[in-house]
Amino acid sequence: MQGEPLYEKSSEFQDVLLYQEMITHLAMMSHPEPRRVLVIGGGDGGVLREIVKHPSVKKAVLCDIDGAVSEVSKKYLPKMSIGFKSDKVEEKIGDGLTFVQERKNYYDVIITDSSDPEGPARKLFEKQYFKDCYDALTDGGVITTQGCSSDSISTLTHPYFFSLTPSTAENFWLNTDFIAKVKKDCKEVFPVVEWAWTSIPTYPSGSIGFLVATKDANRDVKKPLRTLPQDEEDKLFRYYNKETHSASFILPTFARRVIGSV
């Protein structure tokens, strides 16, 4: 409609909500009381919107390398960017790789809502970055990262998948081997590392994945550490709930053999 952002009217916007809820609350609900949260990337503000729903949060810092992203989102996507209006939020423009190194034992949760691991962003999926996140976290801290795609999508042989661009390989249908590699690297840093996924209808193959890790060796991130009554879940979330949290870690057999065995 004239004068209104078509993006917010589209099914893709609904998909973004699903993605943002899951990448956020898989981490937030796996921590007993997240007070300080860092978002690397996520300049559209959608993850921030979800973070500030948690009353325990005192400070949410977002670091994105491109300040234009948040400016455009604030102007044209008010529902997406509403989290920026919270007085708990602090926005930084810069390289997340170096920003995460500035604090030690400070953040309770770090969420990496980055672009796919191509070019400079590839370092956000490497062992050194996981080490930097580990050092920046408090005891029992939690991280989530998006996807885990790569520049090779040779897992499937159907011509459809070879027509996809490299940045679409963010799920077990397209690149289980790369996901397993990233999980293995992360597991050499964090004692607990799991891989979850959710349905995203407009994404290639209809799904996307998340790496979830914690410094607490005794914590099971597959089960939410905190839960809400159903009526409160219904008010706050459109997709996430305690059941979808646990269900997101269930992998089909072929993917479990590769990803789950790491």
Describe this structure in words.
With 262 residues, this protein is an alpha/beta fold. It contains 11 helices and 7 strands. A 7-stranded mixed β-sheet has the order 3-2-1-4-5-7-6. A hairpin with a 7-residue loop joins β6 and β7. α8 packs parallel to α11. About 8% of the residues have low confidence.
- SS field, number of helical segments: 11
Describe the main β-sheet briefly. 7 strands, mixed
Number of strands: 7
- Fraction of helical residues: 25-40%
Report how far apart the termini are.
49 Å
Please tell me how large the radius of gyration is: 17 Å
Q: Tell me the fraction of residues in β-strands, as a range.
A: 15-25%
Report low-confidence residues grouped into runs of 5 or more: 150-169
Derived from helix and strand composition plus strand pairing, the structural class reads alpha/beta
Outline the fold blueprint.
Blueprint: H1 11-28, E1 36-41, H2 46-51, E2 59-64, H3 67-76, H4 78-81, E3 89-93, H5 96-99, E4 107-113, H6 127-136, E5 137-146, H7 159-162, H8 176-187, E6 192-199, E7 207-214, H9 230-236, H10 242-247, H11 253-260
Parallel strand pairs: 1-2, 1-4, 2-3, 4-5
Antiparallel strand pairs: 5-7, 6-7
Helix pairs in contact: 8-11
